[in-house]
Design a protein that fits this description.
rod-shaped; mainly alpha; 101 residues
Amino acid sequence: MDLKIAARMIAVVAIGAGLTAAISALHNNDGPEDAPSLRLRDPGGDPTITRLARCRDMGVAALDDPTCRKVWDETRRRFFGAGNPEPSVLPKPGVDKAPLP
């Protein structure tokens, strides 16, 4: 048998094994789909954490939700201290920033 043919056969078998492993890894869904990670870190049931999780799950729609804005401002105030009493202004999605000069 020619050495080039043997090398090609080994390469084809190796690629096939790699593809098989990749496909089986993509179809392997044994773990929990939605792990409640915030609940595990907060067994006391802090309502602020619950509200933050709800806003996180809302996605982009949370930008227009007044409850989310309020809880974000409260969290920011607790984190940074009481230095910023006014609520923040979040940019609207899809609006580009003005170019810098």
